[in-house]
Write a structure and sequence with these properties.
This protein is α/β, with parallel strands linked by helices and 330 residues long. The chain folds into 2 domains: 128 residues, no CATH class; 161 residues, no CATH class. The chain is 38% helix and 14% strand. The strands form 2 sheets. Strands 1-2-3-4-5-6-8 form a 7-stranded parallel β-sheet. Strands 7-9 form a two-stranded antiparallel sheet. The chain is globular.
Amino acid sequence: MVKEVIMSQVDTNPFKFSDTNKRYHTYDYYLKHRFGHKVAKIPLDCGLSCPNIDGTVGHGGCIYCSGGSSWGQTRGVLPLEEQYRQGIEVMKGKWQTNEYIPYLQAYSNTHTSPENLEKILDHVSKFEGAVMIDIATRADCLENEKIEVLSRISEGIPLTVELGLQSSNDETAKRINRCHSFDVFEDAFYRLRSGAPKVKIGIHIINGLPGETAEDMKNTATSVRNLHPDLLKIHLLHVLKGTPLASLYESGRYTPLEKEEYVNIVCDQLEIMPPSIVIERVTGDGLGDLLLAPEWSKKKVSVINDIDKELAKRDTYQGIFYKTDNFVKE
């Protein structure tokens, strides 16, 4: 019965960048159509730091940070080749594929010299089975010399650069100790776009940041829409043990989003997003023993399913309202 309902949703799905019941442009769909089959992402840790941790622009990191998104990584103790090999072994238990995307995930992966950045990326590009490189970083680590490196690397292998925005609201950025403004982000985005035209650009945003309303989160989505990146990751704010955010939560000064709130906000954001933008994720993992709240985030599949159901209930999809704001639909 459930299978029949899903098939019916596929048959009636009005969204053009989908071959399932998903009413948004999933990363899986993008990879399958780019490479012709499943491709797996392998997280790696280069042992680099973050300018908001080591004192370059700030100390302590963002108030929600408890490890630079290096969950389960090695902080560079293991050679990259060994991390890659171990990641492939894990992926083989999930999918049948011989092609992979080395993902330099932990901390800020352009926070190094241009020479070292080129050395790392050139090295990773030669890993067996690597068909693309993905690199996560911050907008304030993208000097022009590094953009030149990224451009050169992208001539030899497809390259995606993911930039953490989190919120376009500068007051929010101050509250979370982001240590750069939206103007800095926007400047870096456009310099990367013009200086490395073959590089695909992804943006990360976080819903549920302290002090933000649903309207603030939709405004951030509008800012992203105006930039028109190639990819977008939508995250839920997790309260993790040992972080400044945990202190706010435990003292009653921060209240996480409820599941229904989050689902509705994500759907609102998707509805105004250009349909060509690839949605890499619509929520994150619950992060196991580190997670204090929200408890419901541990059931990631349930959250994703509820987003699917809400879009179907509304009879909407990614980009349905994109063309109503004087944007040209692709």
